[in-house]
Design brief:
The protein is α/β, with parallel strands linked by helices. The protein is built from 13 helices and 25 strands. α2 packs across α12 and α7 crosses α8. The structure holds adenosine-5'-triphosphate and magnesium ion.
Length: 589
């Protein structure tokens, strides 16, 4: 059997490779299979349906499938599960490819279930010839009625005993487009009394006169997911077909199809693969289920995410509040942070709910180790140093990262008129407030200690703070180390660049927006304060940067130059995450 040459699986990011060997039940199965010589090499696939954008749950599956293949020297295909053309779109195909690449993975081959339409069809003919499939004329409602329930067996369709000849004729005419949508199905003949409803003569083909993005109008019939998926796996030589737990009950049908179609030992099907130029590495794949990723404070089904987009509740699939990979990316989440999350949550069969703060912790951890520090003031008030000449100007050397000297430093302009954060000043300081207040002192980071001499107000509104700078507290002076409780950041007003900053918060106010208590839906739990736009002042070095450049704005959080809207001369930054978890339960006083 010819084995096609495969590109070895690579990850784009060298940091992606795990430092320690991962231990979970799937990797254990793979290890055992390799040790027992069951497979020469491991082949996995990530099989999205192109009917929406990928979300962070998919990232778990991507990291697992591509990760297992890479760790065991195997390969992983990206396969579009495009068997339901009415919901699918090329826009999604492109976005999915972009997402997988961005996450740091490279597929061995790009495949589509639609590449195998002919194989599916011929396999169905084989099932009919073997008396294992029949054309059924029951309507959808009747099928439901005949199906039975969890406690009662179903009843055989009156069309179940059609002859092979009649079934072949009808199925070929279904394929020729002779019958209208919904009038007939092809069903596997299994067992209407099975305790597993998926085995009660499931439909494997239905009639749909719709165009397909890849095959156009060539097919008026389309295979059902359960039938198409296992054959696709077999055709691609997938050894471990990893999917989420909701498919556990479908596994017997998966195995039934694989065993009864038996591609490798069927010369005509085999020839068909060769004719179509397809991989002939056909194997008997094994389906293994793992639990989905669920995260609180968000929704994760494509249907609900689609509704948020279509109803204008978010600005699009890449709205930085969305749990889509496009949204997370625009928000400033890094590929490494999502891979870190996948490592942290691990793989098991136990359903669980991951805390949103775990996701936030991963991006903090990743960015802390690499994001350059910059000064920015988001809610400004003027601070004027009165004991320096009006035209005083200095360039102060500031390290780009407190722990990574190799990231160098930049000159930060300093002058007597500064912007500081409004809430770093309190006219009537609360107990324990250690920043600026009338008559009080604070350290201006990298400059020295200032005292607030006068508060300039317009009505009740503070517009400026007149301060003096203690010359003895400046760098190199004897008082430079003078103890003082508060240190604040600042930006020189004369040099500052104005920017729009978008301050994001969680999209939902409750941990479980999916719960439909008291007739409410997830729409009732949208967080009205999930986005706020503000005008900020940035030090010049933060402004003229490329989109997607990430920074820590000191004391404020991690920010990223918006992928869509940022320009060097009109900067737009998104807050990825604050420096600390503001949703954690407040410490008891
Ligand atoms: P959704 O239910 O969110 O609409 P889906 O399961 O319909 O998603 P597919 O395109 O069929 O989306 O999924 C592709 C792969 O990603 C499947 O193997 C699926 O099991 C996996 N997957 C989807 N959601 C999650 C999740 N939350 N956690 C882990 N894997 C997931
Ligand atoms: Mg699905």
């Amino acid at each position: 059997m010819p084995t096609p040459t495969k590109k070895p699986l690579r990850m784009n990011d060298p940091t992606a490779s795990p430092a320690t060997e991962k231990q979970d039940f799937i990797r254990q199965i793979v290890r055992d299979d390799l040790a027992a010589g069951r497979h020469a090499s491991i082949h996995t696939r990530f099989p999205p349906e192109p009917n929406g954008y990928l979300h962070i749950g998919h990232a778990k599956s991507i990291c697992l499938n591509f990760g297992v293949a890479a760790e065991f020297g195997g390969s992983c295909n990206l396969r579009f599960d495009d068997t339901n053309p009415s919901k699918e779109d090329i826009e999604y195909v492109e976005a999915i490819k972009d997402d997988v690449t961005w996450l740091g993975f490279e597929w061995s081959e790009l495949r589509h279930a639609s590449d195998y339409f002919e194989v599916f069809y011929r396999s169905a003919l084989k099932l009919i010839e073997d008396g294992k499939a029949f054309v059924c004329d029951l309507s959808a409602d009747e099928v439901r009625e005949y199906r039975g329930t969890l406690t009662e067996p179903g009843r055989n369709s009156p069309f179940r005993e059609r002859s092979v000849a009649e079934n072949l004729d009808l199925f070929q005419r279904m394929r020729a487009g002779e019958f209208p949508d919904g009038t007939r199905t092809l069903r596997a003949k299994i067992d209407m009394a099975s305790g597993n409803i998926n085995l009660r003569d499931p439909a494997i083909y239905r009639i749909r006169h719709v165009s397909h993005q890849n095959t156009g109008d060539a097919w008026p019939i389309y295979p059902m997911y359960d039938y198409a998926h296992c054959i696709s796996d077999a055709v691609e030589g997938i050894t471990h077909s990893l999917c989420t737990l909701e498919f556990e009950d479908h596994r017997p049908l998966y195995d039934w199809c694989i065993d009864n179609i038996d591609l490798p030992s069927h010369p005509r099907l085999w020839q068909n693969l060769v004719d179509a130029g397809l991989d002939t590495r056909v194997s008997k794949p094994r389906q293994i289920e793992f639990s989905r990723l669920n995260i609180n404070y968000t929704v994760m089904s494509k249907r609900k995410l689609m509704a948020l987009v279509q109803d204008g509740l978010v600005s699009g699939w890449d709205d930085p509040r969305m749990p889509t990979l496009q949204g997370l990316r625009r928000r400033g989440y890094t590929p490494a942070s999502l891979r870190l999350l996948a490592d942290r949550i691990g793989i098991s069969k136990q359903n669980s709910l991951t805390d949103y703060s775990l996701l936030e912790g991963c991006v903090r951890e990743d960015l802390d180790g690499k994001a350059v520090r910059r000064m920015a003031v988001v809610d400004p008030v003027k601070l004027v140093i009165t004991n320096l000449a009006q035209d005083h100007e200095e360039m102060l050397p500031f390290a780009n990262h407190p722990k990574l000297p190799e990231l160098g430093s930049r000159p930060l302009p300093f002058s007597p008129e500064l912007w500081i954060e409004r809430d770093d000043f309190m006219e009537f300081p609360a107990k324990g407030f250690h920043r600026l207040s009338p008559g009080g002192e604070v350290r201006l980071r990298g400059v020295g200690i200032v005292r607030c001499e006068e508060v300039v107000k317009e009505g009740e509104h503070v517009i400026a703070l007149q301060c003096t700078l203690d010359p003895e507290s400046r760098a190199g002076m004897p008082g430079a180390d003078r103890k003082i409780k508060g240190t604040i950041h600042w930006v020189s007003a004369r040099h500052a660049v104005q920017a729009e900053v978008r301050l994001y918060d969680r999209l939902f106010t409750v941990p479980d927006p999916d719960s439909e208590d008291e007739g409410k839906t997830y729409r009732d739990y949208l967080n009205p304060a999930s986005v706020r736009s503000a005008t900020a002042y940035l030090e010049p070095a933060a402004a003229d940067v490329a989109p997607e450049q990430a920074f820590q704005f000191e004391r404020l959080g991690y920010f990223v130059a918006d992928r869509r809207d940022h320009r060097g001369d009109a900067p737009v930054f998104n807050r990825t995450v604050t420096l600390r978890d503001s949703w954690a339960r407040p410490a008891t006083p």
